[in-house]
Amino acid sequence: xxxxxxxxxxxxxxxxxxxxxxxxxxxxxxxxxxxxxxxxxxxxxxxxxxxxxxxxxxxxxxxxxxxxxxxxxxxxxxxxxxxxxxxxxxxxxxxxxxxxxxxxxxxxxxxxxxxxxxxxxxxxxxxxxxxxxxxxxxxxxxxxxxxxxxxxxxxxxxxxxxxxxxxxxxxxxxxxxxxxxxxxxxxxxxxxxxxxxxxxxxxxxxxxxxxxxxxxxxxxxxxxxxxxxxxxxxxxxxxxxxxxxxxxxxxxxxxxxxxxxxxxxxxxxxxxxxxxxxxxxxxxxxxxxxxxxxxxxxxxxxxxxxxxxxxxxxxxxxxxxxxxxxxxxxxxxxxxxxxxxxxxxxxxxxxxxxxxxxxxxxxxxxxxxxxxxxxxxxxxxxxx
Amino acid sequence: xxxxxxxxxxxxxxxxxxxxxxxxxxxxxxxxxxxxxxxxxxxxxxxxxxxxxxxxxxxxxxxxxxxxxxxxxxxxxxxxxxxxxxxxxxxxxxxxxxxxxxxxxxxxxxxxxxxxxxxxxxxxxxxxxxxxxxxxxxxxxxxxxxxxxxxxxxxxxxxxxxxxxxxxxxxxxxxxxxxxxxxxxxxxxxxxxxxxxxxxxxxxxxxxxxxxxxxxxxxxxxxxxxxxxxxxxxxxxxxxxxxxxxxxxxxxxxxxxxxxxxxxxxxxxxxxxxxxxxxxxxxxxxxxxxxxxxxxxxxxxxxxxxxxxxxxxxxxxxxxxxxxxxxxxxx
Lengths: 384, 331
Fold this sequence. Notes:
The structure holds two protein chains of two kinds. By secondary structure, chain A is mostly helical. Chain A contains 16 helices and no strands.
């Protein structure tokens, strides 16, 4: 009922044989639905019920009510393990087999919310019901699934959200695990060794560097991956904080990112993903507001950064005079130059009137090459 | 906020007769007679939503009586649980996604007193979490979609006082990204669907001014970038166009008063190209299979830009303006 990308079938009516085949399929499906619904209405939380829901959900993973029934079955089976001595193994085996059951379904229906939700439920249940180290192992092995999903579709919305969620949980569980372990006895061996161990442990608690590196790898494969750029922008404040970056190191980091952007925009000036990230870097570091915590620049550094950016953009514009994204970004950067340059606390030599004239020129060109958004450009023109 | 505040009249190229009104009405009427198709049974979990989509489409097409009113009300009633929430169909579990559709259907046909609305308020209010977000159901998935569905349900029932509106608004504001857009939870990537639900929350709680003018312009700029050279709209940067974004993107632009930031004439032409000219209905893209979900959002898009003599749709509630006027009074 919410089909996407399904080609329209022919307008020829179905043959009698085709209708008959459909009716058989419908009867078999509806028999299964009645069977599962009757187990549900009698609260039959058994292994047999579990198997029936597997058959039904494999045919129709969008049937969320049946996922809910399956949740109740699992919670019941976890309470009624057969051998108390081996309770943990039994629980782990049940939860692991659930995760396994979902794999082919996720591959066939990567955009089905209910499957992802159910998977999250199983993982959260494992946190609640299994010893911490065992649960942590399950969460950690989810990273392989995420890699696979994002390898197949690098923009999958669920995949990226799931990745952030898994990372968050691993970090939290690792923190809890560390707290629950007694602190190591004061080291009597070599001082150096003890210190290293401690550092290693601290490093494991945060996955931010690993995640940051992942975004680098992802845009390395495809510059046009906005999901990766988005995640990168969200990670950077934490990366810099955890590195204990000094003001100078933060500026160097920013220059590195802006340099990458220059190359990237030159590679594909028509790609919105890159431009949006570049936009964030400049807005965060060079806006006329209180000094950014992430990228603290002085007023003259802001102006210098903006002018440097405009310089390569002007060069690129000569090669790509009709590139609307570039023109829009140049107007944005020009606006930043004017607001920062006129703030009065810098002695920069920027001709603000000339900048305004440039912006007007770019805007006129933009109106010519991007008539679809004329209403927006007219408003901008009025404000200029 | 309504489309009437937009700069007037676009010179449209397409003529009203290019919309196959009768075929679309017939298509929607046929939806419940397709019991010999496997797809009908596979989509039972969307039945209540389907009724809402079909009914809204028919109202916009000015055929409000094309579905039998009594049967519609009876069906909605049969989907309510003792908890007050609604399932997609009898024997289906309750969820906010169905609860809103149920209440919207009853609001459109002016029959809210047919169900236990007090229980419904209790159900919805029980799903708000301490962070202000709403869970979709008792199993706890949290998403800005559910803040919207929860609050709209309560607003229709006149019971926004049953929840912490300020916290809900704060949660939504916390989902805004640097590109101006909104994601499903804090930290998530901007997506047109989520922008619709978040702007919807701010609009229906009269808190749109919590976004600065610069921030509103930024999100409107991002939304305007969703229009592709063929006129269609996509949901995120560098993705394909899809008819349903004629609603998510366009209603958001309408809430911001910036419909004129895109080429509405080109969009109309593109939406019309997604019709099935033989059997009625709209598909996600030209030549694909139609469904009622894309059909209603195509018509909503056409209605928002004021093309084709369709009844006016409310960009905040996705119901006919006739209904929202009756509920909330004129804007």
